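Hi,

Apologies if this is the wrong queue. I'm a grad student, and the batch job for Carboxylesterase type B domain-containing protein from Oppiella nova produced an output file that my downstream script rejects. I'm not sure whether the problem is my script or the file. Here is the sequence I used:
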Amino acid sequence: MKCPTYLFAKQFKTIVKNRQNVYFYELTYENQVAAKLFGCDPQTMGVCHGMDIPYVFGLPLRLPQLFQPEDVLLSRQVMKMWTDFAKYGKPDEVWPQLLDNNVVKVRDLNPVNTTRDELYAEVLSLEVDLIPEEFIIKHQAGVIHKI
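Support response: The file is valid. Your script probably expects a header line. Output copied below for reference.
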C-alpha cells in the first residue's frame, strides 16, 4: 500500500513508538451505487478515497433501497468503530495497532471477505517504504512534516 495516509501513519507510529496508539483500516469493499455517487469506476480506480464516508454517516441505514444488506451491517460496524475510537481511543477490543512487534497490521473493512486480516498483516510486513529520516522535520508541538 502506497497511499499518503498509510505512509504517514506508519512513519508516525515509528516515531511515537508506544507513546501513542495508532490504528489503521483499508476499505476494500465497494457498493456500486455509492461508487457512482462518488464518480468512482471500481474497474479502473479500485475503491476510491472517501468511500467509507457513506458508512460512517449511516447512509445505508437511511436509504436501504440503494444498498445491500451487507452495506447496512458494514455501516453499523463502522459507526460503532468510529464512536468507540472517539470515546475510548480504540476502535474495538481486538483491533491491533498499526505496528505490533514490528509487523504492520491493517484492518480490512470488507463484509464479504472477512478472512483477509491475517494474510494482510503478513503481506504488509514485508514493506519497508517508510519516509527516510532525513526527510522528516520534527517541531516542538509534535507536528511532523515531510520536506
